[in-house]
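re: the backbone from monday

yeah here it is again, tokenized this time
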């Protein structure tokens, strides 16, 4: 090797090393800024209350759904977004249990729920919602769905309209969509990815983790929030994401991209709320407006400065809007 070539390789190596080190330092600085934000009002609410009750309900396909419950009154069933857990609803378990029977669900594939023979996805999860409503004999319930949870509600309306009509009085959709998140032309690719992921898992292989315990994951999680979120909330979401079973990541995301629930939403007769943050980059306000247009009696609220994690960022506003929806139901004589 010539002296000139050695020098060139040394220069290239030094530049590459400098880029890597610079990127690491930038990530460290960004993560430090995220961790420095505190919210004295909200931070205590992110811990589950000490008096919650835990249920493990048997599902139709041999699995189980873990449910956290607190309070008495009209049932409010909380369904979280993809990669989160029931505990992400801790603020509403604090804020609503004085008036409502609040039930937060670990959607199958998350938290302490056990996946049955039907695997993960919104169709099986919608059947789990029916099982919860029937096993706990809930009537006059308000279903609240964040992101994936909202899609599960839409799937429940589509596939189980009789149960919804009998047991559900109101709906709340938060940071979610009513139809496919990708163009129809992309669906064959999405379905192929999901099918191959399932085949790999069935053959004993594993899928890559998309969220881990590092600065990059914290920064990526922060992107789901709006302006100045608490470090406690961001870390909570990151930690939950890192705990999702590796085998469920790709199937869960691919399932959401193939969703279209608009026809089912149009069947619901009761009042609904559609909530979205003005800075939501994942399911922006335009998607919320489209969703509201497919509901017969919907109120749309765009929350200034909030992002995709409205349930963590603005729980006091969310709880007040749920109370107002319940007031409407009570005033109309809804059970």
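seq for it, each position gets an aa:
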């Amino acid at each position: 090797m010539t002296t000139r070539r050695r020098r060139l390789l040394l220069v290239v190596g030094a530049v590459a090393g400098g880029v890597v080190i610079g990127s690491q330092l930038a990530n460290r600085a960004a993560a430090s800024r995220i961790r420095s934000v505190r919210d004295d009002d909200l931070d205590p609410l992110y811990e589950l209350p000490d008096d919650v009750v835990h249920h493990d309900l048997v599902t139709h396909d041999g699995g189980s759904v873990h449910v956290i419950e607190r309070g008495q009154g009209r049932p409010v069933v909380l369904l979280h977004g993809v990669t989160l857990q029931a505990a992400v609803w801790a603020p509403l378990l604090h804020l609503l249990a004085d008036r409502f029977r609040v039930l937060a669900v670990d959607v199958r594939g998350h938290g302490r729920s056990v996946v049955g023979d039907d695997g993960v996805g919104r169709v099986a999860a919608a059947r789990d919602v029916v099982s919860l409503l029937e096993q706990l004999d809930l009537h006059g319930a308000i279903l609240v769905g964040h992101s994936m949870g909202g899609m599960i509600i839409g799937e429940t309306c589509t596939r189980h309209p009789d149960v919804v009509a009998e047991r559900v009085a109101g709906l709340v959709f938060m940071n979610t969509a009513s139809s496919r998140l990708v163009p129809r032309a992309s669906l064959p690719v999405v379905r192929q990815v999901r099918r191959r992921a399932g085949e790999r898992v069935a053959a004993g292989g594993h899928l890559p983790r998309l969220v881990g315990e590092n600065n990059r994951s914290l920064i990526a999680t922060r992107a789901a929030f709006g302006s100045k979120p608490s470090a406690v909330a961001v870390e909570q979401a990151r930690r939950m994401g890192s705990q999702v079973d590796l085998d469920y990541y790709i199937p869960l995301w691919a399932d959401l991209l193939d969703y279209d629930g608009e026809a089912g939403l149009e069947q619901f007769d009761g009042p609904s709320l559609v909530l979205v943050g003005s800075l939501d980059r994942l399911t922006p306000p335009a998607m919320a407006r489209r969703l509201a247009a497919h509901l017969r009696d919907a109120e749309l609220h765009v929350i200034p400065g909030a992002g995709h994690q409205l349930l963590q960022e603005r729980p006091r506003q969310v709880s007040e809007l749920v109370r107002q929806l319940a007031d409407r139901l009570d005033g109309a004589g809804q059970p």
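The radius of gyration is 22 Å. The CA atoms of residues 92 and 179 lie 27 Å apart.
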